[in-house]
Amino acid sequence: MNDFKYCTPTQYVFGRGVESQTGQLTRSMGSTRVLIVYGGGSVVRSGLLGRVKQSLDAEGIEYFDLGGINPNPTDDRVYEGIELCRANGIDGVLGVGGGSAIDTAKAIAGGALYDGDFWDFYAGKAIMTEALPIGVVLTIPAAGSEGSGNSVITKLDGLHKISLRTDTALRPRFAVMNPELTFTLPPYQTASGIADMMTHIYERYFTNTPDVEVTDRVAEGVLKAIINEAPKVMADPENYEARANIMWCGTLAHNGVCGTGRQEDWVSHFMEHELSAVYGVTHGAGLAVIVPAWLTFMVDHNPGKVAQFARRVWDVDIADDRLAAIEGINRLKDFYRSIGMPVTIKELGIENPDIDLLVKKLHENKGEVIGGYYRLTATETEQIYRLAL
Ligand code: NZQ
Ligand code: ZN
């Protein structure tokens, strides 16, 4: 096991009706004038935004709105938010919604305290060490941004979708998590969220770091819980207990607990981010397509951990590593199909993807050779995109 430091300062407040505590929680992070960042309208239609504002009113906290954040959020809205913060003396940012609203809130929180262009942090030209305090009210278990120190933003100029990873600056102070808020999710978003959280575990699980039994077992346990609960939320969207389990899985998948003491990978995410940036696909659905192709490539290049995944997560009972791995990948694809996820680029609705462009952007953004579990050149990432066709 590698040495590590692990800090998750986020206070998770979980259960029915907990959004009524948003005002108190905001006050306890020291904020009195906040920017509320939210998406295209689901939080307005559900009445959540109104309840959050009521809770802020009750604590005498002033607020300003930045709504209409799109999935795969873009830098233009971040600049707008930073301006709003500066013009109004804002001292805290609330992300209300999913990863897109939360990641925009985070980018604004970091950018508001920085004299230069906030994109410097995403472009690797500056290191973010501070941000305005961030609070979250989560409405979709998926991106795990409620517990991560990350934010993913697309620069419209050139369509660069980049993930910024900070140790602590962007970790929310609190995350309000009411599983009932997820009852209204459309099935495709529920399933995409499931595929995304599973991938957050794989990116950590597939490692060459030896002797990481405890994190392997934590990862396998959370994956098994997701596989068990997913059919229940798909069949009955208002099953509170199943929604609650899935919601907490989404956080555990990405708040770092599955990644301690081991090298991580993240190539599937990098490859998917190019699909989202160029074709606007839903992140989790894109991952359901990329991951089986990435795993299939690994069967011939580094099958060991894929075989372990097949045996321990998918109960494959085959002694040969290669054959076990192949069977595990088949069971994973069957699972994705069973919850309505695509498993090929074609099924994502992209008939003739420009693979040369995807590969070019991928390596421009992430480097010539990428990945932890297996180091991939451009020729090899091209092969993986082709395996996904
Ligand atoms: O915009 P609204 O109207 O709110 O609708 C959203 C949106 O259309 C809808 N939705 C959310 N909660 C709902 C709901 N509809 C009905 N009822 C509810 N309760 O769902 C759609 C998707 O929302 P979005 O915020 O985009 O979803 P998600 O949480 O999957 O976030 C995706 C973004 O997060 C990034 C992705 O790349 C993508 O840009 N990621 C962020 C990470 C992080 N910060 O740590 C890690 C991830 O790997 C990921 O890359
Ligand atoms: Zn993800």
Per CATH, what is the topology of the largest domain?
Answer: Dehydroquinate synthase-like, alpha domain
Tell me, what's the shape?
globular
**Helix percentage range:** 40-55%
Total DSSP helices = 15
How does this structure look, described?
This protein is an alpha/beta fold. It folds into two domains: 11-181, 3-Layer(aba) Sandwich (Rossmann fold); 186-387, Up-down Bundle (Dehydroquinate synthase-like, alpha domain), CATH 1.20.1090. It contains 15 helices and eight strands. It has helices at residues 22-28, 42-45, 48-58, 75-88, 99-111, 119-122, 187-205, 213-235, 240-254, 267-279, 283-299, 304-314, 321-338, 355-366, 378-387, and strands spanning 11-14, 33-38, 62-66, 92-97, 134-138, 150-155, 160-165, 174-177. It has a six-stranded parallel beta sheet, with helices on both faces. The chain has a two-stranded antiparallel ribbon with strand order 6-7. The relative contact order is 0.11. Bound molecules: 5,6-dihydroxy-NADP and zinc ion. Zinc ion binds next to α7.
Summarize the helices and strands and which ones pair or pack:
Blueprint: E1 11-14, H1 22-28, E2 33-38, H2 42-45, H3 48-58, E3 62-66, H4 75-88, E4 92-97, H5 99-111, H6 119-122, E5 134-138, E6 150-155, E7 160-165, E8 174-177, H7 187-205, H8 213-235, H9 240-254, H10 267-279, H11 283-299, H12 304-314, H13 321-338, H14 355-366, H15 378-387
Parallel strand pairs: 1-8, 2-3, 2-4, 4-5, 5-8
Antiparallel strand pairs: 6-7
Helix pairs in contact: 1-3, 4-5, 7-8, 7-9, 7-11, 8-9, 8-12, 10-11, 10-14, 11-13, 11-15, 12-13, 14-15
Bound molecules: 5,6-dihydroxy-NADP and zinc ion.
